[in-house]
Amino acid sequence: MKNRYIAFACACALTMAGCRHDSSQIRMNQVGFRPDQEKTATIDVPSPDAQPCYVAITNDEGELLWHGVASETMLNPISGKPRQIIDFSYFDKPGSYLLYVDNGQTPFTCPFTISEHPYRELTRKALRAFYYQRASMDIVEPFAEGYERKGGHPDNHVLVHASAATAERPEGTVISSPGGWYDAGDYNKYIVNSGFTMGVWLMAYEMNKEYFDNLALNIPESGMPVPDMLAEAMYNIRWMLTMQDKDGGVYHKLTEPDFEGFIRPDECQKPRYVVLKTTAAALDFAATMALAARIYAPYESVYPGFVEEATKAALRAYAWAEAHPAIYYDQPKMNEQFKPEITTGAYDDFDVRDEFYWAATELYLLTHDDAYKQAAISHQPTEYIPAIWGNVGELASLEWLMHTQPIADCRQPMANLLAHLEPYLDEVETSVHHSPYGNRESDFFWGCNSEGCCWRGVECLYAYRLTGDPKYRTAAEQCLNYILGQNATGYCYVTGFGQKPTNHPHHRLSYSHPKGTHPGFLAGGPNPMRQDAETDGVKYPKDVPADESYLDYQPSYASNEVTINWNVTLFALTAGLDAIE
Ligand code: G3I
Ligand code: 9MR
Predict the structure, then answer these.
(1) Per-residue model confidence as pLDDT tens digits over 116-138
(2) CATH number, domain with residue 62
């Protein structure tokens, strides 16, 4: 073994310069590492009995800087594919390097970098993605950074759909509901998903206030006496406020009857409607406005009257929900009763206890009215479910943990968060991704890169903030490593980043723009349900494993769309890590 090793070390030095780059067999974070961050890579090996590979690190000139041996071979529990882990954490010198691997086939190299703030630009681009998503306005230089376009969907002539008709606003009434962000790859605007997105957004601000106060985004509002990150959010919050009816109820979404074609926003001509006021929309709206009233309180001079307006809107929406506690968005049923039929995204939710829990929590934190505290406690769920657009209870639990001592009657003390995370952290040492994510079939579904991976990383950041235990910071970084390349497909799932980035997202703005794919967007990720299979030529490889059921192919909306609720978890993770001094 010793002789072979010496021979290998010599071979490295001799053959480095001529060695081919091949990141397809090395799966690692393609954006970069902090100097004192744990650094690992996953390598494909030809068989389950492959001997540990010899590895080395050189500079771009081929100078040998480090060498070592990979782990024993492990099998991916989902695909059975043999992998080894390289741990080069000890190597901590900032710079650009090559990782050299001899896995018994053709030796190959993969570039990587070490720097003080490797996630700063990714955070900035992930936030700027929301500027690109703005409806109703031109995207112009110098803010567009190469992706300028004419605005579309002024949404100043929006029709009240029959499902939302009232005596004061009968069917066909024209209202104005401009602004806000397009939800995703489509051009519609949805209150439920907007509410969840604003919750994660403003909670991320609260956790990393100083960081975001100093993060310049080059948006039109840059330079105002308000953090760019809050100015960007206000563009969507102001739209949300226009979705509240006179009775306090909130329209579920603003939408064309069926999805628009893959054309530019300024080419779109379909009529747009506000539809059915629902309990979930009212409660997500109430939580958003109560949270926003707290967060923007210091900026009354920039947004005069906003705090009072948001507070009143939140109280009215919550009261409407109490008076209408079970109005659910059931699109097929709505279409049986009302025309035109609506076939766009549903964001349907038939259990609103979690929305009552979140809205009451935010109203308690804003007003300190004990009635809302009692309401929150009465709607607390008994099990700990990771927050997604349709289950927002964890947002409330994290707010209680961050803003009050775990109150005796708040049945979800700190222990629940840590108990929820522990089984995933226990998987890292035997994970072929060296990550607390991606090791079980149930990790893969529509939007899992966000709702599974990024959000698990954000949960770890909350655990780190609440306990100070560095293992949670490491776990959050391991989740980000997965997103940025240490995964079963080898993709860096963020557009514009890495050697093998997502390049063809299901995104009308990218597809219809002469410059194509916009940077900073997180792709949904592997989804074995494959709801888009056979539509528009979407064909998955036969017998593809769950963790590889991903197509970097524009028509694949079930694995390759981009959305606001996914991007907010991406920057909540990257900013939360980048903000740690
Ligand atoms: O959470 C369960 C998981 O526990 C289970 O193991 C898994 C497999 O059965 O399913 C998971 O639920 C999935 C859910 O996404 C996860 O959030 C559902 O199957 C899946 O149908 C659901 O898909 C939603 C999709 O619309 C279809 O309704 C996505 O969440 C949602 O992000 C997506 O939203 C669309 C909008 O409607 C329109 N705009 C684009 C946007 C993104 O594609
Ligand atoms: O583009 C739509 C995407 O935003 C949605 O998430 C997805 C599922 O609702 O639907 C997409 O629209 C497709 C439609 O469902 C089927 N015909 C092709 C449309 C464009 O891919």
Answers:
(1) 999 999 999 999 999 999 999 99
(2) 2.60.40.10
Q: CA-CA distance, 287 to 403, in Å (whole number)?
A: 15
Is 186 known to be catalytic? Answer: yes
Give the CA-trace dihedral at 493, 494, 497, 501, to 10 degrees: 40
CA of 511 to the centre of ligand 2 (A): 14
Look at residue 370 and tell me if it is in a domain: no
* Residue 87: CA count within 13 A, CB half-sphere: 11
For β-strands 40-44 and 26-27, DSSP reports them as antiparallel
Q: Report yes or no: 524 and 144 within 8 Å, Cβ to Cβ.
A: no
Ligand 2 lined by 576 (C-beta under 6 Å): no
Provide the token pair at 130.
């929301």
Render pLDDT for 530-562 as a digit per residue (tens, 0 to 9).
999 988 889 999 999 999 999 999 999 999 999
Q: Is residue 121 part of a domain?
A: no
Separation of first and last alpha carbons in the chain = 42
CB under 6 Å to ligand 1: residues?
A: 183-186, 345-347, 388, 442, 445-447, 451, 529, 557, 561, 563
Helix or strand run (H / E) with residue 337: helix 331-337
Cα pseudo-dihedral 439, 443, 447, 451, rounded to 10: -100
Does a structural domain hold residue 385? no
240 and 280 fall within a common domain: yes
Q: Is 210 a catalytic residue?
A: no
Q: Separation of 446 CA from ligand 2 center, angstroms?
A: 13
Q: How far is Cα of residue 577 from the mean position of the Cα atoms in its chain?
A: 15
Q: 358 and 325, same structural domain?
A: yes
Kindly report the number of other CB atoms within 10 A of residue 414's CB atom: 16
Q: What is the pTM of this model?
A: 0.96
Mean pLDDT of the chain: 94
- What's the pLDDT at 24? 76
Atom of ligand 1 nearest to the CA of 188: 39
List, for residues 394-452, the tens digit of each pLDDT value: 999 999 989 976 545 554 555 689 999 999 999 999 999 999 999 999 999 999 999 99
Supply the range of the domain harboring residue 339: 137-362
Active site residue 506: yes
Please work out whether the CB of residue 259 comes within 6 Å of at least one atom of ligand 2: yes
Tell me, yes or no, if 561 is annotated catalytic: yes
Q: Please report the pLDDT score of residue 198 as a whole number.
A: 98
Residue to mutate (ligand 1; options 354, 383, 389, 446; most atoms within 8 A of CB): 446
Give the pLDDT confidence of 473-490 residue by residue, as tens digits: 999 999 999 999 999 999
Which CATH number goes with the domain that contains 567? 1.50.10.10
The verdict on residue 384 lying in a domain is: no
Domain shared by 30 and 142, yes or no: no
The number of domains in the chain is 3
Share of the chain above pLDDT 70, in %: 94
**Residue 109: predicted pLDDT:** 87
